[in-house]
Amino acid sequence: MVTLEVANASGGQLSRESSVDDVARSDFDRVNPVTGPIYVQRAEPGDALRVDIMAIDLDSWGWTANIPGFGLLADQFRSPICAFPK
User: Fold this and answer.
1) CB-CB contact of 63 with 8 (8 Å)
2) How far apart are CA 79 and CA 23, in angstroms?
């Protein structure tokens, strides 16, 4: 069994107390961190692996944003819009 703990998409820059101003000041080189790779003993390139997800535990908060010049809909926003549902 493998347990993964992943960082939020801000790379740890945003917290439950963050605001849209914090999003605008974020270092976008740290945004969307990747978790992995994961080494699988005896697996070879091209192998198909079966993965059974036993559980997913979510944090008690999250965030989403539309940021000018960044990501999906980047050209549709002139200023950042952010939501921190609690």
Assistant:
1) yes
2) 11
Considering just the CA atoms, what is the radius of gyration of the chain in Å? 17
Are the C-beta atoms of residues 4 and 56 closer than 8 Å to each other?
no
CA distance 51 to 60: 26
The model's pTM is 0.60
Residue 5 tokens read as: 């703990």
Q: Give the pair of three-digit tokens for residue 54.
A: 């036993």
Q: Dump pLDDT digits (tens) for 11-54.
A: 889 888 888 888 888 898 888 777 778 889 999 999 999 999 99
